[in-house]
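Sample intake sheet
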Amino acid sequence: LRFDEKVRVVVFKSEVKGVFCAGADLKERAKMDDAEVAHFVKRLRNLMDEIAALPVPTIAAIDGYALGGGLELALACDLRVAASSAKMGLIETTRGLLPGAGGTQRLPRCVGVGLAKELIFTGRQIDGQQAFSMGLVNHTVPQNNEGDGAYQRALTLAKEILPQAPFAVKMGKLAINRGMEVDIASGMAIEGMCYAQNIPTRDRQEGMAAFREKRPPNFIGK
């Protein structure tokens, strides 16, 4: 996906009705020794980092349970859409663990330190509406009869992104992601570097021409 220039947006959904991702298989985990567990969690953390680093926007469609590593997967995405009936939580402390695939870092960056600590310390599960109220998800929708309400809303959101200039969207994502990790002056410099890369693109010229000619732009990602 990273190297496929035709990909504009990636939507993560589950084929299992009622479950987005239930997290690690603890029965499988129980058979591992300490070294195997450490290796497994490191690989999982690396996977989440790879997802977070995808150059195109990513959307998690949470139509059911997103628990433990399942919520960490959703947090690794840029945007999250949840059915109001979905259940989410970093429940690791209820199993004698702590989030190990990015949850302790991405949740506070998403909802703030105080709320993240409360959710992680208690292992509490919340529904889609509660998640929306605290900013954990971008949108919440009533679940439909097919059980894919969040996925359908995610597709609508993806279709809002698709017409926009692909390279500009990629640079916007990069500027936000890198800028969030540094002070604002450094962030401004990062934005400037990303903007400079966008200036010579054909899409920028097309956007200006379309504005002058009062027509929709035809972006090609170049």
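Comment: The first strand starts at residue 10 and ends at 12. Residues 166-213 form a domain with the Lyase 2-enoyl-coa Hydratase; Chain  A, domain 2 fold (CATH 1.10.12.10).
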